[in-house]
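User: Could you check the structure of this?
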Amino acid sequence: MRGDADRQWGKRKKKISKMKTLITLTLAFFLTLGSLTAQQKITAEQVGDKIEFRVNGALFTNYIISDYEKYPFFYPVNGPSNASVTSMRNANYPHHSSLFFGCDKVNGGNYWQEGLERGQIISLRADILESGGDKAVIENECIWRRPGADAPIKDKRKITVTKPSADKFYLDFEVTMEMLMDVTILKTNHSFFSGRMDPDLAVIGGGKMVNAEGEQGEKGDEGTFGKRSAWMDYNGERMGKREGMAIMQHPSNDWYPSPWFTRDYGFFSPTPMYWPENGKATELKKGEKVTLRYRVIVHSGDEKEADIAGEFEKFSKE
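Assistant: Sure, the predicted structure tokens are below.
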């Protein structure tokens, strides 16, 4: 009898030990998960003439606001591979500065291409509104100016960086332009929010450019050039991994959805000023304000694996 009782107690001890181990492992899992969530720290810090956006200490992007540049811009824009998905100028197109906002042919000024004397978008102030939590937010006020002429436009930008998952970054860019005088923007293919991809991710480098309707590449009936679309994604493979960047237009934007100016060498931009209603120019009155919202998603995989269509549906409701 004593032997049976001892054996039963031994079995009970083993069960209790297993239960304790399971409980300990479960608690450790949830504590680790909570710790990882708590460690999601996104910061914005001004360092000289740039604002660094970091995620858990790793650089995501710099927002460069130097008085010696044509306009403020983002570079690098690092993807999940920790390499930039955008490129910083080249010999043929030195005015393509990674990810930027500008415009040509504004009351005779050029706020897009090289040559500061032709026009320049200057940062007047850049304030960090949020930093250190699950997002970083800055506000940037700019003036559009050139020598010998009154400034036609001032703008205010709100930039928000978040990281919704391990393989995605969001960069939300909202800009409100205020007309300081009557403004005429002549037809131009150089207008507003634009991205220039790293050559390895461009179509000519083996990458893919695709819009919301599934049209791909630059040219032809099934190409993306001149087509209206809510979003465009550029993705390609490098270092054995596929990653890319999408630009989305919010449905509240004027001219939505703007036609896209696209190039297989890596440039893409929703460009309303190249397709003005009258075919010649866009007229904006003094005091008029235009607000444009864009979401940039830097992601792993292609547009389907990153569910860019589903991401746009979420963005469109915000």
